[in-house]
Amino acid sequence: MTVFFGSPYFGPKAADYARRLREEHWDTPPDELRQNRAGLFSGVTCTFLPIVLYQTVLGVAGSEEFMAIDPRKSLPKDLAKYLLNNQHWEFLGLCEKR
Question: Model-level pTM?
Answer without folding.
Answer: 0.74
